[in-house]
Design goal:
about 475 residues; eleven-stranded antiparallel sheet; 25 strands
């Protein structure tokens, strides 16, 4: 059915059942493993595991209630029915309007989980024609949600049947290690070396664009396709990779046509329901290994390298400008500048920019200003997007986009999709990029992508069935 947008979403929202059942259980001694086990149980057609701030894991699942937006149209589903509307090439605004129709009187509001594809950036900042015809945004409004902390496990469900399914799973003992094929070091290095020659050429062309004055920086990436057989086991990869990584956020999902297991080094944005908003640009990279002395040498090198410092500084400058566009005057500050953060197989220069949203701005206004992350595009964003369209092969899809968890009360937490195994029904792949500036060399940027791929590739697990 298709009607006026506001009446459409009001009718849809009335068809989305609330999470009326709430129960509390003992805390899990291993929340990552528990959340992964819930994902493996096949409770519903779609699920998300999202590791938030402070060691809290969230599991959400359902099949009935969702919202999907593309460049020209938006579709919502609930209770076996479908609602559609046009977006007028403003899918993010339509998406936000639909979600705002959900109402919940609880303190946290109604939660939703979803993703934004990188190509949404073309509608926000560059050429709308480059956005393509694939979905750009997708959100699940779950039938069941489990929050795992060190203090307790909270289960929220639409009815007793859903609550019982999850309670039964939580009561089961955690299984031992499952049988999965693990890659050898030689196979891992073979995977991450795919496409390096073509990537070096793309870096050289981008350096030429920068020296010609077209832009300051572009984050050029390369796709690493995985063999069709054996197929990667996403939950097993997630758990193995999370044991070895130190992400800002992590996620495991089968949602809206994508599967992903990722270890995000930074957030695109974090918005509290009190209006505080922050973003965490990471730019500047060196390897992080098992030798403390070598790690410290690389850390000192990172903090003194002119190319890395310049790359980081221009990213922070643009983050400030994008925050100032949606925040109250005088509230934007750099709370952290050029710290060094460990992120799995690499260490990054890291900063944090914070502010307070204007009274007339909401979380999706902040998302529109900050998405995609500067550290996945470049400076300026428009010029970087045009450069990436010329020098990268094919659309990025989920890579460089966001996986998010939000609330109808105004909270929104969006992780940048990097260091991630990504799959669709037909294929699976890794992807990694490096920030290219006028001082870049193809050899160093190739090396940087390999360093980043080592945060995921050694932990790939493959189904033996």
């Amino acid at each position: 059915m298709s009607t006026g947008p506001h009446s459409t979403w009001e009718a849809w929202a009335r068809s989305v059942p609330p999470l009326a059942r709430t129960g509390t259980r003992e805390p899990s001694h291993d929340p990552a493993a528990t959340a992964t086990r819930l994902a493996q149980a096949g409770l519903a057609g779609q699920y998300v595991v999202y590791e938030g701030e402070g060691g809290t894991w969230h599991f959400a699942a359902g099949s009935d209630a969702s919202v999907t937006a593309g460049a020209t149209g938006i579709t919502a589903r609930a209770a076996g029915r479908t609602w559609t509307s046009r977006t007028g090439q403003e899918p993010l605004a339509a998406f936000a309007t639909a979600l705002s129709a959900l109402r919940d009187e609880s303190d946290e509001g109604r939660r939703f989980y979803g993703w934004a594809a990188f190509e949404l950036a073309h509608l926000l900042h560059a050429d709308p024609e480059a956005a393509g015809d694939r979905p750009l945004l997708h959100a699940l409004i779950p039938s069941v949600e489990v929050t795992l902390t060190g203090e307790r496990t909270v289960v929220r469900a639409v009815d007793e049947a859903w609550a019982r399914k999850v309670a039964d799973l939580l009561a089961e003992p955690t299984p031992g290690r499952t049988s999965c094929e693990e890659p050898t070091r030689e196979r891992t290095e073979g995977v991450i070396s795919v496409g390096t020659a073509a990537y070096g050429q793309a870096v050289s062309r981008t350096v030429g664009d920068i020296r010609a004055g077209l832009l300051e920086k572009a984050v050029v990436s390369r796709k690493v396709p995985l063999p069709a057989e054996p197929r990667p086991d996403f939950p097993a990869t997630y758990l193995a990779g999370r044991r070895a990584n130190t992400p800002a956020r992590s996620y495991l999902l089968d949602l809206g046509g994508y599967r992903a297991a990722g270890f995000s080094p930074e957030t695109v944005l974090e918005v509290g329901d009190d209006g505080r908003v922050s973003t965490q640009p990471l730019a500047g990279t060196r390897a992080l290994g098992a030798d403390p002395a070598e790690n410290e040498r690389r850390r000192a090198e990172l903090l003194s390298d002119p190319k890395e410092i310049h790359e980081h500084a221009v990213s922070v400058r643009l983050a400030w400008d994008e925050m100032a566009a949606v925040c109250r005057p005088g509230t934007v500050v750099v709370e952290e500048y050029m710290s060094v953060r460990p992120r799995g197989s690499v260490q990054h220069l890291a900063s944090r920019v914070t502010g307070r949203l204007r009274p007339d701005a909401g979380p999706w206004d902040a998302f529109a200003s900050l998405f995609p992350a500067i550290t996945a595009t470049g400076v300026s964003k428009r010029a970087a997007l045009e450069t990436l369209a010329r020098h990268e092969e094919g659309p990025r899809g989920l890579y460089g986009g966001a996986v998010f968890r939000g609330s109808t009360r105004g909270a929104l937490d969006a992780a940048l999709v990097l260091r991630t195994l990504i799959g669709t029904e037909d294929e699976a792949w890794l992807r990694a990029g490096a920030g290219v500036t006028a001082q870049s060399s193809p050899e160093r940027e190739i090396e940087e992508t390999c360093e980043k791929l080592r945060s995921v590739a050694p932990y790939l697990r493959f189904s033996t069935e």
